[in-house]
Amino acid sequence: MLFEPPIPVLLPHGLFDEDGRCHRQGELRPLTGREEWALAQAGEQLGPRTVSALLASCLGRLGAYPNVDASLAAALTRGDRHHLALHLRARMYGDRLMLVARCPAPGCGAMADVDVCLSALAPERPDAAPEVLRVVLPEGHAEVREPTGEDDAVLWDVEGSREERSALLWSRLVEVEGRPLSPGDWRALPAKSRHAVALALAEGTTAPDLGLLARCPRCSAWLELELDPFALLARELRGGAERLETEVHVLAFHYHWSETDILALPRSRRWRYLELLRRELDGRPLVDGWS
Ligand SMILES: [Zn+2]
């Protein structure tokens, strides 16, 4: 069967190897029907490991890495993973995203439209980002790095209060004078130092800014929402799951292909065959201009 070429994606941060070389240029393959189906069944919250497996299956090469497996995908920053999800979504459903949100103002509750261009959320950043950000604290020189899928996977497994989980994450991201921190070390830092580290990361991050703002049409209050690109993709695929089943049924019925073969096709190929089938059944020419 024909396949669809991958699209090039330049990661905002990229993966640094042991020699400090950064690998940013990736290739994104379209989701196959099998991946669409798995995501549609994955539930409301996609775990970080599910996301890594998904990215491993649709990322072709990344810089000098000819293949991206789940552990390499987990080593990508959270921002790079979100960047890829936004590109996957734009490829499947288009660049424009229309959301509806309820106004939180007391006594209002009106619905507001939020109109988003994904390419504006995830712009290409030609300039390379540093592997770590540096901050000078009274306690010494600190380095902070962006959180990765692996950090998210560790947090996913840990029970505990918001503060405990936050301290665990920061202890993984920050070193002071070249020394790793324990969660207790992080919490023992003065608030001013912790704030300086958080500010350095917020200002230096290459992650897409997923905070959206909209105005309530009734009371003009500002609505703030945070976009989760993987949850969005899963929600949209869940909405299309029945259609996917119908596509498999129609293609299997007419072409006698197996379910496995049909689900190995990306959506654009399935839709192209369905279009050809429609023309065939309508008695129209299969290619425009041919009789
Ligand atoms: Zn309102």
User: What is the helix/strand order?
Assistant: EEHHEHHEEHEEHHEEHHEEHHHH
Mean pLDDT: 92
Distance between the termini: 25 Å
State the strand order across the main sheet: 6-7-8-9
Report the bound ligands by name, code or SMILES.
zinc ion
As a percent range, the share of strand residues is 15-25%
The poorly predicted ranges are none
The global form is globular
Query: Would you tell me the structural class of the helices and strands?
Result: alpha+beta
The tally of domains stands at 3
> Largest sheet, if any?
4 strands, antiparallel
- State the helical fraction: 40-55%
The total count of helices amounts to 13
The total beta strand count reads 11
Give the radius of gyration: 23 Å
Explain the layout of strands and helices.
Blueprint: E1 7-16, E2 22-28, H1 33-40, H2 48-58, E3 59-62, H3 70-75, H4 78-93, E4 96-102, E5 111-117, H5 118-121, E6 133-137, E7 140-144, H6 149-157, H7 162-173, E8 174-176, E9 179-180, H8 183-188, H9 191-204, E10 211-215, E11 222-226, H10 229-239, H11 241-255, H12 259-263, H13 267-282
Antiparallel strand pairs: 1-2, 2-3, 4-5, 6-7, 7-8, 8-9, 10-11
Residues 103, 105, 108, 110, 216, 218-219, 221 line the site of zinc ion.
Protein name: Phage baseplate protein
